[in-house]
Write a structure and sequence with these properties.
two-stranded antiparallel sheet, 10 strands, alpha+beta
Length: 323
């Protein structure tokens, strides 16, 4: 087994590529001037890129190559980095020895394609459980226990990513992000004593639990069918609502507040929330959630900048000073 040498983030125009990539999705063969071609979106732990396979006029031969692999497989790609509309892509010319072919699991290392948190998941889980124990309200404590005393849920929670690309997009990312948000909310509860600490902490700890359903992890991170059709905000609110209904005498107003925190934690409809935060604890969870995601994006942008300039640019954040 040989580890990858060429990662998506480091590819530049003109590079000769001969390495392994995970298949995110592919588009069926179609005719072009000199034969038949197809496109594949491939990825590794640093990013993703389009591969265009330019084949001969033998449609059946091109389709055999296309049919030899599926989404989630790892393929060897041999080609050259070109640009199309100012975006890098890998061009594979069959007549020049280019190829796209699947490889066996024994030929690659999983961590070349999906990164894992640099922090120990068991230690993070211990820290999160310490925050769980700070919640004194018996109903909210029982609600948290409904999730975190469930070993199957905890294992999924520890492994889930927090996103596909934006932030904490690695195994353990959900736990890492949740711990950050909960710690921020715990601090803010001390700074603002009029906040309901129990409600705030419970909302912070549970705000993203729908992501255990939203994402799938194979050789890449992708959205599940449920994630595509409903998303973690809706599924998370549903999970909390069902758990509350199973707890004897759970106050209806408290249940509604918890569901509202779940539904409003992205802050705005254009960011996926069907409701804006409408009480202090919901607003605080939203701000802490956004803060953690934003800070991580800025830090990563600086760390991953490939320039000798004092500035770098990202589509999401704009100009970032590196000095």
């Amino acid at each position: 087994m040989v580890g990858k040498r060429q990662f998506v983030r480091s590819l530049v125009l003109g590079d000769e590529v001969d390495d392994l990539f995970s298949v995110k999705y592919k588009k069926p063969p179609r005719k072009y001037t000199n034969g038949f071609m197809f496109e594949v979106r491939v990825a590794d732990r640093t990013g993703d890129i389009t591969v265009k396979f330019w084949g001969p006029a033998d449609e059946a031969a091109v389709r055999r190559i296309y049919d030899a692999f599926k989404d989630g497989d790892v393929v060897r790609v041999r080609g050259q980095v070109n640009t199309y509309r100012d975006v890098l892509e890998i061009s594979v010319n069959a007549e020049s020895g280019g190829l796209v072919r699947p490889v066996q699991a024994s030929e690659y290392r999983f961590d070349d394609f999906v990164a894992s948190s640099k922090k120990n998941p068991d230690m993070m889980m211990t820290q999160l459980n310490s925050l769980v124990k700070k919640v004194e309200d018996s109903h909210l404590q029982t609600l948290l226990s409904a999730f975190f005393s469930d070993e199957e849920f905890v294992e999924k929670f520890k492994r889930a990513p927090a996103s596909i690309t934006i932030h904490a997009n690695w195994i353990g990312g959900l736990l890492e992000h949740t711990l950050n948000v909960a710690n921020v909310c715990d601090f803010l509860a001390g700074a603002y004593p009029k906040l309901d600490r129990d409600l705030l902490l419970t909302g912070a700890i549970l705000h993203d639990i729908g992501k255990v359903i939203e994402y799938t992890v194979t050789t890449n991170i992708d959205e599940s069918t449920d994630g595509m059709l409903r998303g973690h905000i809706v599924t998370g609110a549903e999970m909390v609502s069902r758990a509350c209904e199973k707890i004897p005498d759970f106050p209806d107003n408290l249940r509604l507040k918890m569901i509202h925190i779940m539904l409003s934690h992205h802050g705005k409809p254009e960011q996926g929330s069907p409701k804006r935060p409408q009480f202090p604890e919901a607003a605080t969870v939203n701000l802490a959630d956004e803060m953690d995601a934003q800070i991580e994006q800025y830090v990563r942008a600086k760390e991953e900048a490939q320039t000798d300039d004092q500035w770098t640019y990202t589509k999401r954040l704009g100009l970032i000073y590196l000095g």
